[in-house]
Amino acid sequence: MMPLEDETEARRQIGALPYRRLRGGDYAVLLVTSRESRRWVIPKGWPMKGRKPYEAAEQEAYEEAGLVGHIGKRPLGFYLYEKRLKNRDAVLCQVKVFPLEVRKQLNRWPEQHERELRWFAPAEAADAVSEPGLAAIIRASLKRDGEAQL
């Protein structure tokens, strides 16, 4: 029996890769913990009706980490992961990742007490995330000045 198409197709999500430039040309990347498994991830979520994908990614960064900045309109790439739903099922998700140059972090935001946040060097951020595709995007996008793909 053939599986139904919607069972095998990845559900679409959008995410922001928050970064800031440091003196000397290096970068720092902000990761947040997921609410359920407490893994290090980027702010991400489902597309939002009436918003372009990059606008929805910018909104997720605000809700999950209180970040305000400049969101890129072109994605850096995408990665796949298995999301555990509340009913314990898992669905395959494809996350389109947009760069977010952080200008400031607010003192209060909606999910402030639900997640941990931490700034990482790009190599450490890539090592901290569990998804190989996300690690590859971080490594490819945030190199020393002049080489960055942002």
TrEMBL record:
InterPro entries: DDP-like_NUDIX, NUDIX_hydrolase-like_dom_sf, NUDIX_hydrolase_dom. SUPFAM superfamilies: Nudix. It comes from Methylobacterium dankookense. Residues 9-142 form the Nudix hydrolase domain. Keywords: Hydrolase, Magnesium, Metal-binding. Pfam families: NUDIX (PF00293). GO terms for molecular function: metal ion binding; pyrophosphatase activity. Its cofactor is Mg(2+). This is Nudix hydrolase domain-containing protein. GO terms for cellular component: cytoplasm.
